[in-house]
Amino acid sequence: MEQRLSLVTLGVADLARARRFYEEGLGWTRGNDGADVAFYQMPGAVFALWSRPSLAEDAGVADSGASFSGLALAYNARSREEVDAVLAEALAAGAEIVKRAHDTFWGGYSGYFADLDGHLWEVAHNPFWTVAADGSVRLA
């Protein structure tokens, strides 16, 4: 298996509500027209929203409804100021700020928000990594 990630799919309680959050609240652009799933092109990968029951059925697992999945998505910002701006944008769109941005033990600046379905997003500035013009991230 190649060392890469192609698609991240979030199971959501209400697809229309989730689409409004990501599209109207955060300004993302949808890349498909289908009614059952929403795809968003990202640098090097695709992000998807799908109903939680459909995702569980497709994977052949029971939906336990656990409140913490042990997973966090991340948005790497180009500056500390961008971290603050993204967290403010998420809050204005209806997200919950789980952890306010702060200086980290590893030398960066980071905070967390939860989207409308409780999926955790870290928003971080890592001064040791490079964020290219297309948004792709490179390790130092």
Report on the architecture of this protein.
By secondary structure, the protein is of the alpha/beta class. The protein has two domains: about 60 residues, 2,3-Dihydroxybiphenyl 1,2-Dioxygenase, domain 1 (Roll), CATH 3.10.180; about 70 residues, 2,3-Dihydroxybiphenyl 1,2-Dioxygenase, domain 1. Helix content is about 25%, strand content about 35%. The protein is built from three helices and nine strands. The strands form three sheets. Strands 4-7-6-5 form a four-stranded mixed sheet, with helices on one face. A three-stranded mixed sheet has the order 1-3-2. The protein has a two-stranded antiparallel ribbon with strand order 8-9. The longest helix is centred in the middle third of the chain and has 13 residues. The model has no long low-confidence stretch (mean pLDDT about 95).
What's the SSE blueprint?
Elements: E1 7-12, H1 15-25, E2 37-42, E3 45-51, H2 52-59, E4 72-77, H3 80-92, E5 96-103, E6 109-114, E7 120-125, E8 130-131, E9 137-138
Parallel strand pairs: 1-3, 4-7
Antiparallel strand pairs: 2-3, 5-6, 6-7, 8-9
